[in-house]
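R.M. (postdoc): so does anyone remember the format we settled on? I'll just put the structure tokens first.
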């Protein structure tokens, strides 16, 4: 196994192929033209595809995934805090 195989293609090359894919070229075309595997290109598309949000900011799929993970953590923390408040807040006799 070659030492260079994991980093055979640089990041700019990968992003360029993803851009070509997003602009209408098929994965099959790109694989044939540039000599990359379908699985590698599919992975790059997932990794480097971008999403434009309402304020014009552009996020990568990786950034979106990180934000989803962080959101889940915050929701869990919020739930824990709500339960703690319920436990430690004294209830009045009218409750």
């Amino acid at each position: 196994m070659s030492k260079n195989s994991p980093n055979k293609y640089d990041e700019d090359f990968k992003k360029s192929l993803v851009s070509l894919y997003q602009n209408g070229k098929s994965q099959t075309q790109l694989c044939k033209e540039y000599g990359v595997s379908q699985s590698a290109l599919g992975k790059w598309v997932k990794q480097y595809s971008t999403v434009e949000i309402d304020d014009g900011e552009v996020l990568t799929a990786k950034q979106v995934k990180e934000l989803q993970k962080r959101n889940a953590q915050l929701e869990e923390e919020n739930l824990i805090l709500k339960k703690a408040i319920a436990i430690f807040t004294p209830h009045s006799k009218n409750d």
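R.M.: ...and that's the designed sequence above, right after the tokens. Also worth knowing: The mean pLDDT is 87. The beta strands are 50-52, 58-60.
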